[in-house]
User: Fold these one by one.
Assistant:
Number 1:
Amino acid sequence: MVSAISDVMAGLVPAIHVWALGMKNVDARDKPEHDDSSRLAAYPMTEIIDATRSSPTVVPAPPLLAVRNIEVVYDDVILVLRGLSLDVPKGAIVALLGANGAGKSTTLKAISGLLKTEDGEVTRGEILFEGSAIAGIDPDKIVRRGIFQVMEGRRIVADMTSLENLRLGAFTRRDREVDADLDMVFNYFPRLKERTGLAGYLSGGEQQMLAIGRALMARPKMILMDEPSMGLSPLLVKEVFSIIQKINRDLGVTILLVEQNARAALSVASHGYIMEQGKVVLDGTADELRDNEDVKEFYLGGAGDQRKSFKNLKSFKRRKRWL
């Protein structure tokens, strides 16, 4: 009898196995006040086994981009990133926040392969895109894999027209749908269709729209945006960030957004990281960061009546509080 029960129960939790074997010798006075044996017997043993074996194991989806403990050095001497790690899920907008010199732009250049142009290199850690290592790969090959960076300060070609700048974004493509994508870009940025002159004569907001449109022409899976609000009026900032959110929602393009305007960035992002001195000191959902007292004080314009003067504050004090 015991042998038969052991064979049936082999696939179940060991605790059930032990209980089943021990029930034969349990003295009446040792039984618990509420005996569950009758309830267990009411269910066929095959149903219990099937229910146990069919329990699904939930495996979280891997991030589209994973940065793992990277260090970046310029000119073989200057250490800028110190063990930085972050994840960007597929289809999400993730904000990377921090003050000037925190290492935000260097992080984007490490991902897009542009460190080589500034005598920088990733000396430690790994950068994975769709599960494949991309650290050290040439920038044009990274673009072909699906990552496009919108540089700080727009970096449009001033001596080319808006249309020529947009076509430049599609230089890695070999399909015949470039014209259709031009119409798509003009749908998001109708002003660009009206501007037929040289791009250098566009306003700051229009140049930013052109830079984002040029990125879309590459049909990227992920866009790295570096300070899209730089030099724009509050009204234009609101318009640009609204378009960024719409592009993410309509096209499913994943966006890693570097910004000093924390309030604007967290208004469109689902998750955020805060950097100081080359490493991440705080991360969380956008709501968690907005509600964090330190983030309110140092990035969102104070923490109500408890706001302190910035005159005597040092960055190490912020990091000490966060860590």
Number 2:
Amino acid sequence: MIGAWLAEMGGPLLSGPPSYLRSTETETEMNQHVAAELADPIRIQPAGPDDVVRLVDLKRRFGATAALDGVSLTVRKGEILGIIGRSGAGKSTLIRCLNGLERPDSGQVLIEGREISRLGERDLQPLRRRIGMVFQHFNLLSAKTVEDNVALPLKIEGLPRAERLARAAELLQLVGLSEKAKAYPASLSGGQKQRVGIARALAARPALLLSDEATSALDPETTRSILALLKDINARLGLTILLITHEMEVIRSIADRVAVIDAGRIVEEGAVWQVFANPKSEITRSLLGGIRPQLPPEIASRLLPGEGAETILRIDVAGEAARRPLLSELSARVPGPFRLVHGGIDHVQQQPVGTLFVAIPGSDALHLAAVIAFLKDRGARTEVLGHVAGSV
């Protein structure tokens, strides 16, 4: 079918080279998702007022490799859920199960309350129209104008041209590209192409928007603008968004909740600010390494076990604990000197989250215990990182 479209429309895909299609979707699969053929409409009833997606014990193996190993997850109506993991963690397999391009070996995939993993192609087609997809490499038709690219899903659905173009105009205004309606993709920047891709994904008024590494091919400034657009669309339309990424900065910028996937399993899940404040798993701490304050290498390299001239203490605070004048209170309540050597307070989802590194002179175990007990009582988490022989 993709080949038939291209013959009809007079040109190849501008973006989405064969290597991308091989690694993410075959032509047949992309055709199944983007151009679901007309079928008798079915009534889709949500499982509950807050559930758009529910995954139950999802498993998928490729030979000896477990791509998904018991994934259970819920995406609530109107929220932005970010799924993050390293390459090979299972993100791509998960998103392909969500849009019906991959069938799990076992488990359930429920979209608006309907289990889709065992549906035949005819029943999957109208369900796919409830899911919009934003691709990493845009996948725009080079021989068609911007407005025709946006209207493509509606053309496949069989809507009249006037209705298609009216919807395209509405969406181009939403994404800030009204003046580009008659332009061709070759004249657009990367950010503009992705805006067109987002508008196309919204054309059929989906209940769920899947964003598959939508900003990973963009520069930082353009990434911020695209994330702001997705956030605005979520707020204006109440659209549920599931965002796949390997960048914690993307999660921090846009997501309400985050799920961390590693080796096919969800190893951590929660509100973004809570996961940032208190990561439970090693993979989450690693992914946060570039965002959370870290002890400067020149100090970290000097850390020794046992005793030293100064003890280096890591203090993690969030929420109310981060709003308190913690160090002033420590100075007043626990006699003895200390120095702030590094750290800071950030805000995630309007919640203060911070990490401080403090040097406490001497090797007085009782004094150190009193400091830690005081901080714990104030809601802070502490960790003795080690000792240094001289002053830092």
Number 3:
Amino acid sequence: MDRIRTWFGGLEPRERRMLQAGAAVVAVLILVGGVLMPLGASLSAATARRDRQRADLVWMQTHAAEIRAGAGQLREPANEPPVVLVDQTARASGLAAALRGTQPSGADGVRVQLEAAPFDTLMIWIAKLDQRHGFAVESITVDRAAQPGTVNVNVTFTPPHP
């Protein structure tokens, strides 16, 4: 550091002023290019994001009644027989180990037996069957299983109504 001070002190006053002015210009460029421009870009992006979210909120508020009215009609098309669809969704939901039987019941109804099924997983699966495929629970029997948090279940689903 002393070598720099000695070198700087040995410069002509005019050279020192030019060097100081050049250092100030570099500092300003670093401040503008490295701090202020990225900050401005982030602010612009945040403002645009906020404006999009406000527009989305206005649209949702305007169409809320229409969305609520149509929510029950959003069903996934069933390309499989009801008994196959119920069995596949049970396995996909993580109930394969608990599944003891899936069989037709009445006209397009489905009866399912599960042993030691995790209760929370079972409830989520039943809700998905209703919401995504239109199956309703016609009857259900739930008994506590030996392991905490698990249940033995016999459930009959009614077919979806078109």
Number 4:
Amino acid sequence: MSDRRPLGASNKRHRSVVLPAIRTAYPVGESVADSVINVEDLLKRYPPDVNAVDGITFSVSGGTVFSMLGPNGAGKTTTVEILEGLRVPTNGKSNVFGVDTTKDYAKIRGRVGILPQNFEPFDNLKPIEALDYWAKLFDMRTARKEMNELLDVVGLSERKSLLSKKLSGGEKRKLGIALSLINEPELLFLDEPTTGLDPKARRDLWRLIEEIKREGTTVFLTTHYLDEAEKLSDDVAVMHRGKIIARGSPSELVSRYGKTTVVVLEGVGKDGLREITRRGIEASESDGDVTVPVSSPSEMRTIFAKLSSIELPVKDMYTRRQTLEDVFLSLVGTKMDEGVLQE
């Protein structure tokens, strides 16, 4: 038997929708700095002894974008589904807005918006019809003008009369976000929202997420895209094999687990790596390129002088700032491509 709980409508409310662009996400008396999510020693075990989520503890501050970053199978979606009241943990605490999601989720359902992983819209409904239907599930009286404004916010105003099955992949995700905003959520869960989208569609969704955050809504994002987490996040939890193995802002993670700058030597390969390390220079190799970390600007001149003295088949040599990709490689020991570890 599945441990997932059925989706249901929120507490009954009869009021019009106020769009995120003109609403205040936090009620009077509730500080934006307050934690809206608190998780303690959360465990989800599947028979016989698989810990999909393995004793994680974290909190999420209001008004921020919190990203749970990791490969497929890391436990990200399981964690989100527990927080959404859809799955029951084996042990530990899971609180959203101070409410135990395993017991009283109905109390805060109307304050939460959800875009599930691999969202597919109602194929035979037009976007405007889908919004109307979804609003009725929340017992909300929503004017057509307000639904049109919401479609405009997500960039679908020109596609509102087209059947949802004819929308592109990026447009379907935008419709999913519009549906998740219909109840004016203070907290928005986005589970892998850009997976499989082309670069332009991904950037469009990034801009939309940034706008939602600017208006004060807390965003809980799961992703396996390192550049996405770096671009959007105030706070990142790197998850691997059910555990959170690192936590902090993107810049904090780069500072803590990497060097600020690296020198990249294109095409020198493993032979070049051996020549470099033989001279006592710290370096690593990936896909034929060798990177040399530099701990401070004053060290740069010395590193360049040492590298220039070595006979190497260099196609190009340049410097770059380290990113979350370097952090992930340092923490996990391998790269990640479309959510799959390249072991």
